[in-house]
Amino acid sequence: MTTARRAGRIGRFTLTVDKGRADALVSFCRQGVRKTGPTTFVWEARDDVPDSDLRVLLVSNDPAFPGDR
Questions:
Q1: Among 4, 29, 2, which Cα is nearest to 17's?
Q2: Contact assessment for residue 27 and residue 52, using Cβ atoms and an 8 Å cutoff
Q3: Dihedral sign from CA coordinates of 29, 35, 36, 37
Q4: 3-state secondary structure at position 24
Q5: What is the Cα–Cα distance from 6 to 4, expressed in whole angstroms?
Q6: Taking phi first (over 0 means left), then psi (-120 to 50 degrees means alpha), and beta for anything else, what does residue 63 get?
Q7: 36: closest CA among 12, 60, 56, 15?
Q8: Residue 24, phi then psi, degrees to nearest 5
Q9: DSSP code of residue 13
Q10: How far apart are the C-alpha atoms of 10 and 8, rounded to whole Å?
């Protein structure tokens, strides 16, 4: 997600990531990420000034998992 080129502050922002499967892995580099369920994670920001783009990595060994091959 491109956020770093945004002009000014982001007033309030909530990102919910669902990794789909309990055995999948998810990674995103932000402080304050909370696990809210077996497969879901939430990051909330207020008055945030992005200094880099938000990148999310999902990894699974399930061949049916969507993504690049």
A1: 29
A2: no
A3: positive
A4: coil
A5: 5
A6: alpha
A7: 15
A8: -80, 160
A9: E
A10: 7
Cβ contact 57:27 at 8 Å: yes
Q: Which two tokens stand for residue 4?
A: 């770093």
Give the count of alpha carbons within 13 A of 18, CB side only. 2
The string of pLDDT tens digits covering residues 16-62 is 999 988 989 999 888 889 999 999 999 998 888 877 788 888 888 88
**pTM, 2 dp:** 0.72
Which tokens belong to 51? 């200094």
Pairing between strand 34-35 and 25-28? unpaired
Chain centroid to CA 25: 12
Which of these, 21, 26, 25, 57, lies nearest to 39 by C-alpha position? 21
Only one residue has tokens 């304050």, namely: 32
Q: Could you give the CA distance from residue 67 to residue 48 in angstroms, rounded to a whole number?
A: 29
